[in-house]
Design a protein that fits this description.
The protein is α/β, with parallel strands linked by helices. The chain has 2 domains: 122 residues, Urease, subunit C, domain 1, CATH 2.30.40.10; 283 residues, TIM Barrel. The protein is built from 13 helices and 20 strands. The strands form 5 sheets. Strands 1, 2, 3, 4, 5, 18, 19 and 20 form an 8-stranded mixed sheet that branches. It has a 5-stranded parallel sheet with strand order 11-14-15-16-17. Strand 7, helix 3 and strand 8 form a beta-alpha-beta unit. Helix 5 packs parallel to helix 6, helix 6 packs across helix 7 and helix 9 packs antiparallel against helix 10. The chain starts with a helix and ends with a strand. The N terminus is likely disordered.
């Protein structure tokens, strides 16, 4: 009797210590294991239930069922029961122009990191593309993040923007507008010089205002030959070109000039033309919808709820028309220009355009990783970069759950924890 009781106690103690060791915090810089979660390896793959994602040296080294993956002793355990694990999110349209980013080279890292969380990493962003900010600040932020001085996403940047002659946007502050006059391209030679300059200082792409809003109902287009000159510089360096189109002329000139990404829809125009949609698809142009931007712009202008609704309806319809045609959709919100940090509404509006949770997940992960040729990112697969998001609930049941982020992990390191 005593021997049986002793054996029973020993078994209980072994179970207790095993569970305690599994739950015990270890060094997060070593091996990391996400356990008991529902994992979406890719947007279209069936989920793996009660899964383990094992990370070593910033890479995913194993993904599988709990009984299939051996967790190393001392691994840092993140309990994911009831949670969902996906690849880390991209926001392919952001700006670092707020006052919080000024003097990023010398500003306290803690303050910058706090704002980085509020704007980006809190929402699962492990990679972002800045398409028009102050290069000195964006490049400083990138250096400080990459050095490990502060936590943040991987930052790609266009290192500024190129505008048409007399085409500085009306909505920019006067002091900034004055400083940006030097970024105007009146001729193809100007565009060549400015594009070369952007890439030389560290740009990962080029941003063109092919249609620049210079007043109420007034859009200054960038001539096709100017667009094409900048595109030639970027493509010679295997870099993408973003266009801010604003209207049909800005869209048509962008497409004729060979741009790669339209950074917005054009809701004031009432829809893409059939020819525009065909050219976009034939030339593999990606679209960043920024749907939540448009009703917010109407709000800032003092517009009515009806006008806000009409603007959104038009933007959603334009997204739907290109998505239905099989066009590439990249998630992006124009955050940093807008203060709409929470992307929940963007997810809801994308559903209105006919996108389901898998389509939205693709726009956040595999689509940008493939489009920007970012290597082994965008999937929860062995051998890929350990850029991951842990969600509190499944977006398959409600797309708003994409915004319920518990952990954001970049290269195997936790850069945000709720």
């Amino acid at each position: 009797m005593f021997g049986w009781l002793l054996a029973f106690v020993v078994v209980l103690l072994l179970i207790f210590f095993a569970l305690a060791a599994r739950a015990m915090p270890a060094d997060p810089s070593g091996d990391l294991a996400l356990v008991n979660g529902k994992v979406y390896p890719t947007p279209q793959a069936a989920p793996i239930l009660d899964a383990v994602v094992l990370i070593h040296d910033g890479k995913i080294v194993a993904v599988g069922k709990d009984d299939e993956v051996q967790i190393p002793k001392g691994a840092f355990i993140v309990e994911c029961a009831g949670r969902v694990v996906t690849a880390g999110f991209w926001n392919s349209h952001v700006h670092f122009t707020e006052d919080a980013w000024r003097n990023a080279e010398t500003a306290p890292a803690a303050k910058l990191e706090e704002h980085m969380q509020a704007m980006l990493t809190k929402w699962g962003d492990t990679t972002v593309f800045d398409i028009g900010s102050f290069p000195q600040d964006t490049l400083a932020l990138r250096r400080r993040v990459d050095s490990g001085e502060m936590a943040g996403p991987k930052i790609y940047t266009t290192a500024g923007s190129i505008f048409p002659k007399d085409g500085i946007p009306v909505y920019l502050p006067p002091q900034l507008a004055s400083a940006l006059k030097q970024q105007e391209a009146a001729t193809p030679a100007d565009a060549t010089r400015l594009a070369q300059q952007s890439l030389a200082i560290g740009g990962d792409g080029i941003k063109l205002f092919t249609g620049s809003i210079i007043g109420h109902g007034k859009v200054m287009p960038m001539p096709v030959d100017v667009v094409r000159a900048a595109v030639e510089v970027a493509h010679a360096a295997a870099k993408p070109v973003f266009a801010h189109p604003s209207n049909h002329v800005g869209t048509d000139n962008a497409l004729a000039g060979g741009v790669d990404i339209l950074a917005h829809t054009i809701p004031t125009e009432g829809g893409w033309t059939r020819d525009e949609l065909q050219q976009m698809k034939e030339h593999h142009v990606a679209l960043i919808p920024t749907l939540s931007l448009f009703p917010d712009e109407v709000r800032k202008d003092g517009g009515s709820e009806a006008v806000k609704a009409d603007s959104l309806k038009s933007a959603v319809a334009e997204l739907k028309s290109y998505f239905d045609k099989g066009g590439t959709i990249l998630f992006g919100t124009d955050v940093g220009y807008t203060q709409l940090y929470d992307p929940t509404s963007e997810y809801e509006y994308m559903v209105r355009a006919g996108m389901n949770f898998r389509d939205i997940l693709a726009s956040l992960t595999t689509n940008p990783a493939t489009f920007f040729k970012a290597g082994k990112t965008g999937k929860v697969v062995k051998g890929y970069e350990a850029d991951l998001v842990v969600l509190a609930a499944d977006p398959a049941t409600d797309v708003r759950n994409f915004a319920k982020v518990e952990y954001t992990i970049r290269e195997g390191k936790i850069i945000y924890k709720k």
